[in-house]
Design brief:
By secondary structure, chain A is an all-alpha fold. In chain A, 82% of the residues lie in helices and 0% in strands. Chain B has a domain of 180 residues: P-loop containing nucleotide triphosphate hydrolases (Rossmann fold, 3-Layer(aba) Sandwich), CATH 3.40.50. In chain B, helix 8 links the parallel strand 8 and strand 9. The chains are: A mainly alpha, B alpha/beta.
């Protein structure tokens, strides 16, 4: 089973790197939002620094959702999903592996790029660490919650928007605690630990929900 | 107008005529369903008095097995009983029963939308059954881990090469303790595509993709092959090769269920026509 799991992860990473779609486009999208914000808000550096964590979290959320609707749909379209059903891997594990591959190719580049982009919003260096850490703790939950939406909309043509509408409300807790990690009145480890809890719960539960949705296409 | 003469609730196109029910002979109705040209025996579960509607319900058994006698998987048997499938609130078929042993082949025929693909998907548990049971005896693992699916889509990633696609499937489909029957390169050679191992699938023609998909079945030992329009897009030579591969699989003790509108060249195959009652 380990061999099959690694083969699936390897395949998804290869395809993501070869097509180039998800990761690179997500990064450019992320950069666009960060760049647009000062134009919309104005050059008040104090204001920008105060709302920077919120902007970055929303940008990360949207960039993560960008390619997520194709998570299962691409495999459904070319018949791969049906054959994967007959593989030795349980469907829940297939969902989890695909989420890991998606996180590695989409969310991880964003987290790595965040310190650079956050400087553009005037965030201090001390806050950068906390921001990166909170993203690292919270983005797995975003990807896995998104996978439920992706599984539900797998048979819907152009279901990306529908998926976003379905799962954005579910991401609110992650967003609240993600931004709270920057709050000077809250010990910053506390929200990060809650984010870790969210991610662990999502890793345990979301594959079951997504697999149940995929079984009833 | 629903039929009120037997357990079936399938809609009849016209008002059922009682005389028609009685005068219709078993041979008339069942000849449409079972291709009697091969030496098949069928058994009728509902008796002669209700022959017209017993058509939905029959068992198929090949009278002579098509395999080498020393094959180990002789106890292999796929038993489908009283299958009732509802798709989109429409009853596709009900009380469908058949049984296949090692070396048997069943060809599903029927008009578009008769439920051929749905039956194949239902066998793998991809569609919920309204009623009925599917059992595979002779193996420790369930049918879904003993079946190869060749669906209408080829199940290949366009961004990967033919060899990479097959390597992936070989690793994902093979049981932990199983060893591959042949390598991806050998499987491609068997479908005469050895030269295209490193070509991305995106650059292959529809027929070539179909052959790569067929090569997937050769790498991992799984006795039940579920084929949906397997020879679509295949040229004449490839169709012959496909028939050879299928016969080899049956001689090795495998079984084949194929949905097709064209002759697949399977000798001694039983034909099951779905949707003849609509």
């Amino acid at each position: 089973m380990m061999r099959a799991a690694i083969a699936l992860l390897n395949r998804d990473l290869t395809i993501a790197l070869r097509i180039g779609g998800g990761g690179a486009v997500g990064l450019i999208f992320f950069l666009s939002i960060i760049t647009l914000t000062p134009f919309a808000i104005g050059p008040d550096l104090n204001l920008l620094a105060r709302i920077a964590p919120a902007i970055i979290w929303i940008a990360v959320l949207l960039a993560t959702l960008l390619g997520l609707d194709r998570l299962f749909q691409a495999d459904e379209d070319d018949g791969v999903l049906d054959v994967l059903h007959t593989s030795i891997l349980p469907l829940e594990l297939i969902v989890l592996i695909k989420c890991i591959a998606h996180w590695l190719t989409t969310a991880l580049p964003l987290i790595i790029a965040t310190p650079v982009f956050a400087l553009m919003l005037g965030l201090g260096t001390g806050d950068l660490w906390v921001l990166s850490l909170s993203l690292l703790a919270g983005t797995p939950a975003l990807t896995l919650i998104g996978a439920i939406g992706a599984a539900l909309t797998v048979s819907v043509r152009r279901g990306g928007l529908l998926m976003a509408v379905l799962i954005l409300p579910l991401t609110i807790p992650v967003l609240i605690f993600g931004v709270a990690a920057q709050d000077p009145n809250v010990p910053s480890m506390l929200p990060i630990l809650v984010l870790v809890a969210f991610s662990l719960a999502a890793i345990a539960l979301a594959p079951i929900a997504a697999a149940a949705a995929l079984r009833h296409i | 107008m629903a039929c009120n003469r037997c357990v079936c609730k399938i809609r009849a196109t016209s008002v059922p005529d009682p005389r028609k029910h009685r005068t219709k002979t078993a041979d008339d109705s069942l000849a449409r369903l079972i291709d009697n040209s091969v030496q098949n025996r069928y058994t009728n579960q509902w008796g002669r008095s209700q022959n017209f509607h017993s058509a939905h319900s029959f068992a198929i058994r090949l009278s002579r097995p098509f395999i080498d006698s020393e094959t180990p998987s002789l106890s292999l048997r796929l038993l489908v009983e009283n299958l009732h499938l509802i798709r989109n609130e429409r009853s596709l078929f009900q009380s469908l029963s058949f049984s296949l042993g090692a070396g048997d082949a069943l060809v599903l025929a029927g008009a578009n939308g008769a439920g051929k693909s749905s039956l194949l998907r239902a066998l793998l548990g991809l569609l919920p059954l309204a009623h009925g049971s599917i059992t595979l005896t002779g193996r420790d693992t369930p049918l879904v881990e003993n079946a190869h699916l060749l669906g209408t889509a080829d199940g290949l990633k366009a961004a990967l090469s033919a060899g990479e696609n097959l390597t992936f499937w070989s690793r994902v489909l093979r049981a932990d303790d199983g060893s591959p029957l042949v390598s991806p390169a050998q499987a491609l050679a068997q479908v005469n595509l050895a030269a295209l191992e490193h070509t991305p699938v995106a650059y292959l023609s529809a027929g070539q993709r179909r052959r790569v998909a067929l090569a997937r079945l050769l790498m991992v030992e799984r006795p039940v092959w579920l084929l949906d329009e397997p020879v679509n897009a295949l040229d004449a030579a490839s169709q012959l090769r496909f028939a050879e591969i299928c016969q080899e699989h049956r001689r090795a003790g495998g079984m084949i269920i194929a949905a097709s509108h064209v002759d697949l060249g399977l000798s001694d195959a039983t034909t099951l026509t779905l949707g003849a009652n609509r």
